[in-house]
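Q: Could you fold this chain for me?
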Amino acid sequence: MSSDTGLYGPDSVTWQVNADPAMLLGGLRALLLQAVHPLAMAGVAQHSDFKTDPWGRLFRTAEYVRTTAFASTVEAKRAGARVRGIHKQLAGIEPETGLAYRVSDPDLLRWVHCCQVESFLTTTTRCGLRLTKEERDAYYAEQLRNAELVGLKNAPDSAAAMAAYFRDMQPQLQVTQAARDAARFVLLPPMPAKIELITPARPGWALLAGTAFAMLPRWARRLYRLPGLPTTDLAATVAGRAIRAALKAVPADLIERAAPPGSRAPRGSLPGD
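A: Sure. Below is the predicted structure, expressed as structure tokens.
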């Protein structure tokens, strides 16, 4: 058996956070948060298959997150190299602003990175994972290794630096038509008729996605023209803790088998499996 425990290892905060069941909510929150950057959203809308294969894209993203957190160093670096290779080929023009972009632009890479790691940490801790202030800072510092995998050399390395980053970014953000379309896909993804009609998959997913939406920062909810009220924060936290408790009782392989046919995650792709 290999002694290589990957980029982080079992004593890292990353292993605590990324193995937590609430990562499912964190991943959905990250997608919704990434979408309020017009150029980042244009890259997704113009170059990904989220509309034609939303479940496949979700599981491939989950597999990448798991690989970079828990797989060997060689596997993590190989996954990062694949992503860098794809990013180098992608560029376009955002239709509403007319701005050109390249997916490999450091500013866009930084936005995607920050949305992911801030969502993972914020969601898991709100849902009940107990971490000290020092451990939260350590998580962001550890995630600089993940940023380097995709070619990003400068990212926030503490909770204070992350909060300052999002404050500075807010004037650049808006919800475009592509972002609204993406949010609808997250909230109401297509499901096979058999699954939708004879299982509780639809209301169950609505609870997950709705809670993830409510866990967005207040300023982001306002961009989506949703209430940015403290009561929404409290309700989301209560729902998130209940969802986390329920997910802890469900075997990961059962969650994988419940995925729509043809879109299942590769074995062992879900956090905590």
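A (continued): The chain has one domain: 13-257.
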